[in-house]
Every structure is written in C-alpha cells, then in structure tokens.
C-alpha cells in the first residue's frame, strides 16, 4: 500500500510518539520523519529493562535458580565449578551489561543494515535515521516491564526462572522447554513483541524509505529469517 497523503504533518513530541506508536504507527512515523529522535525509545527501553532485571535478582531465590540453570550439566564436577563462578552479582552485572551495551549495539547493527538497503533502493536514509527507525520499532518491548513485574509479584518464594519474566514468549505460550533444552533460548527470545516490532519496522521502512509495502516486508524479513533460522538449525543439531 502506497502513501498517498502528501499534506504536511506536524511533528510529534518523543513522549507523544512513544504512546501513539501503539495505536497509529503509520501516522506517528510520518510525524517523526524529519526529527526521529531515536535516543528516546532507546533510553526508555534500557531503563525499564535494567530496572526489571535489578528487581528480579533482588528477589529471586538464587540457590534455586542456580540449581535450575546447572541441571543440564551431567558432570557433578562441571556443576560445582560453574556454581563457583556464577554468583548473583556476576549474573546481575552480566545481564545489566547486556542491556546497556547489547541493546544499543543491536539497534546500531540493524540501523546499518537498513541504511545500506535503503541506499541500494535509491531512497537512502542516513544512519541516524535508520538507527532511529530500529529503536522506535522496539517500542512494544516496553510492555515486558509490567508483564515481568507481574510475574515477580506472583512468584512463590522467589522461585521464578528468567524465561518466566516474559509470559508472552513462544516458549511460555506454546513450547514450555526447560532451560536445558537446546531450543529454549530461541523460543524464549521469540515473543509476541518480536513480531509486533517487525510489523512496526515494516511500516517505518515503507514510510521513511518511500518503498512499497511488499518491499518493506522483504527487507525486514530477510535478516530475521536468517538469524532465527540459523539459531533453529543450531538447536536442532544439538538434538540430533
């Protein structure tokens, strides 16, 4: 579907855009086209994720969690060595590091990809704009904060696995793999918010790169199919 309304649209404030992204994403992307301000959703996502992880490790029964994480190791010696390394502070630091470094890095990589593809389609976006598009497409992930908070509050005696923080992952909804299963990480990572973010990325790329909807779908699907397909193939190889 092509965009046909060429009338000027007033720009949106970052806070207003964050809210309207949930119910009128196409118009929101139009409003932000000239001032995308990708730092705003990035900061919101980093803060909410960081707070949730800090809260989780402050309340979880860490001895129970460690037993769950090491259950897949067959050797008692391996479990003993891993237990010495995997302290609560180490796990918290690692998780926060992934949030504070991994999340921006993910948006940077996606931004570079979108920039290169858009230039090859003759409607090139700058890196700042493609980075902002990647960041704004991640807005649905903010919903994981209230969902995770609800899970923490309902947990019995702090016995809550990290994967259970996201009750709308494919693992929680459909597969129910335990931590030791080779496909658990993939299915924990695939969530309803993942597909929602892909949908926003399609709309945003169509709007800002001035391409057809079918082209935007292909651009967004290719990296996701390659990455998740490779992870699925690796998991299946572990089951063989």
Structure description:
By secondary structure, the chain is mostly helical. The chain has one domain (36-239). The protein has helices at residues 14-20, 25-32, 39-59, 62-70, 76-85, 88-120, 127-137, 144-154, 170-175, 184-189, 192-209, 213-239. Helix 3 (39-59) runs parallel beside helix 8 (144-154). It is globular, with a radius of gyration of 20 Å. The N and C termini lie far apart (44 Å). Mean pLDDT is 92; it is low at 1-8.
Secondary structure: elements and pairs:
Elements: H1 14-20, H2 25-32, H3 39-59, H4 62-70, H5 76-85, H6 88-120, H7 127-137, H8 144-154, H9 170-175, H10 184-189, H11 192-209, H12 213-239
Order of H and E elements: HHHHHHHHHHHH
Radius of gyration: 20 Å
Overall geometric form: globular
The major pleated sheet works out as: none
- Strand fraction equals under 5%
Domain Yip1: 21-232
InterPro entries: Yip1_dom (IPR006977)
Membrane topology: Multi-pass membrane protein
Protein name: YIP1 family protein
Structural features:
disordered N terminus, mainly alpha, 240 residues
Q: How would you summarize what this structure contains?
A:
The protein has 240 residues and is mainly alpha-helical. 70% of the residues lie in helices and 0% in strands. The protein has twelve helices and no strands.
């Amino acid at each position: 579907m092509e965009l046909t309304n060429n009338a000027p649209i007033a720009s949106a404030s970052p806070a207003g855009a964050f809210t309207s992204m949930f119910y009128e994403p196409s118009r929101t992307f139009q409003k932000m086209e000239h001032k995308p301000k990708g730092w705003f959703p990035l900061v919101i996502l980093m803060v909410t994720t960081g707070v949730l992880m800090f809260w989780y490790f402050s309340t979880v029964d860490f001895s129970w969690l460690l037993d769950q994480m090491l259950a897949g190791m067959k050797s008692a010696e391996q479990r003993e060595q891993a237990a010495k390394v995997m302290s609560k502070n180490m796990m918290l630091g690692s998780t926060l590091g992934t949030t504070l470094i991994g999340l921006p890095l993910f948006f940077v990589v996606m931004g570079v990809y979108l920039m290169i593809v858009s230039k090859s389609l003759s409607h090139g976006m700058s890196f700042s704009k493609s980075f902002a598009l990647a960041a704004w497409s991640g807005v649905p992930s903010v919903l994981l904060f209230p969902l995770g908070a609800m899970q923490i509050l309902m947990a019995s005696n702090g016995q809550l696995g990290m994967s259970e923080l996201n009750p709308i992952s494919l693992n929680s909804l459909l597969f129910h793999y335990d931590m030791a299963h080779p496909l658990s990480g993939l299915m924990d990572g695939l969530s309803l918010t993942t597909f929602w973010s892909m949908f926003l990325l399609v709309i945003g790329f169509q709007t800002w790169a001035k391409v057809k909807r079918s082209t935007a779908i292909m651009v967004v699907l290719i990296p996701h199919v390659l990455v998740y397909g490779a992870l699925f193939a690796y998991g299946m190889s572990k089951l063989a």
